[in-house]
Amino acid sequence: MKKDYVLGLSEEGFHRVFYTQWGDTSAHHLPLVCVHGLTRNGRDFDGLAAYLSGKGHAVFCPDIVGRGDSDWLHDPQHYTYEQYVADMNVLIARTKAPHINWLGTSMGGLIGMVMAAADHTPIRRLILNDVGAQIPVKALTRLSKYAARDPDFTSLEQAKTYFKTVYTDFGDLDETEWQRITETSVREIAPGKFISKMDHGVKQSSMKSKLAWKAFFHPHKALEGSLFDIDLWHLFRKITCPLLLIHGTHSDLLTPAIIQKMLRIRPDMQILEIPDAGHAPMLQKPWQWETIETFLRDNKS
User: Fold this and answer.
1) How far is CA 89 from CA 46, 112, 246, 275, 280, in A?
2) Is 59 exposed, middle or buried, given 0-12, 13-18 or 19+ CB atoms closer than 10 A?
3) Are 118 and 97 in contact (CB under 8 A)?
4) Which of 18, 80, 106, 242 gives 20 to 30 Å between its CA and that of 63?
5) CA–CA separation, 175 vs 91, rounded Å?
6) What's the helix, strand, coil split of the chain in %, to 5?
7) Angle CA(93)–CA(11)–CA(15) in degrees, nearest 5?
8) What is the DSSP code string of 140-197?
9) pLDDT tier for residue 131 given thresholds of 50, 70 and 90
10) In this structure, are strands 123-129 and 243-248 parallel, antiparallel, or unpaired?
11) What is the distance between the alpha carbons of residues 144 and 44, in angstroms, rounded to a whole number?
């Protein structure tokens, strides 16, 4: 594993977007970009990335701006999907590959759908981890309750207890896995004072994002996420690359009804069910890594 950064550009100027890279880009397989959920960071994929790099895949795991080791923006209003897409386009250029594969958890999957639906997309295979073409407003309401409330901690043990409580839907994780999640989710800023590696200005991403939701082109869209489910079917119908949908069986964000509708549009879409997980599976188990690698295996450069 090696760590580096690319420079993103917003109205505030340039900002650093850090990422970890696993494996060599000269590998036979297309590079895989793994993008985390709203309040998480790229180190969530350490286990998967280590496994895949051992199978000949180059894996890039960025910290979206405002999370992990990436810079924080001064104005929280600049945390938009337009910004995330622009930053990820720079990261894709860093891979030096004309085409890539994409795995996105929750927010990372939404970014992936936006990019995979665009003309001349470089994405050749898309893996969506517990996110689909419709986002239930009830799930958004629940997620928003913890999206920016992480307290300060006096010890790693206190932080671990907190994360185990907040992220119960991650799945059946053992103490070693929770310890690793904790160590990669906080930083010590003074003796006995730990803070979350996420800007408290990061809220539930703007539902008025023109690129993601096209809110300004339809009055109904402006209320999505507050009164109505978010409708991304217009994006999903434009995605033509092979798809793998990962589903936490207890998820309230990706429901069986949404999955069935997605399958009617894309009957070739593969499904990976993760038992004992909700939103969103943490993908810490070797059998999950094997399924993902099998999906990617035939997509060679």
Assistant:
1) 22, 11, 24, 33, 24
2) buried
3) no
4) 242
5) 33
6) 35, 25, 40
7) 50
8) HHHHHTTTT----BSSHHHHHHHHHHHTGGG-S--HHHHHHHHHTTEEEEETTEEEES
9) very high
10) parallel
11) 20
What the block records as the tokens of 115 is 């990019």
CA distance 291 to 244: 10
Alpha-carbon distance values, 174 to 113, 192, 279, 287 (Å): 31, 25, 18, 15
Strands 193-196 and 186-190: antiparallel
Q: With beta carbons less than 8 A apart as the criterion, state whether 250 and 277 touch.
A: yes
At 22, give phi and psi (nearest 5°).
Answer: -120, 130
| Structure tokens belonging to residue 238 | 């434009």
What are the tens digits of pLDDT across the range 207-250?
A: 445 444 443 334 344 334 444 578 899 999 999 999 999 999 99
- Phi, psi (deg, nearest 5) at residue 193: -130, 115
Q: Is the pLDDT of residue 141 over 80?
A: no
What's the rounded Cα separation, in Å, for the pair 118 and 239?
Answer: 8
Q: What secondary structure does DSSP assign to 100-141, as a single string?
A: EEEEEETHHHHHHHHHHTSTT--EEEEEEES--SEE-HHHHH
What topology does CATH give the domain 2-140+200-297? Rossmann fold (3.40.50)
**DSSP classification of residue 47:** H
- Lookup: tokens for 159: 């932080």
Length of the chain, in residues:
301
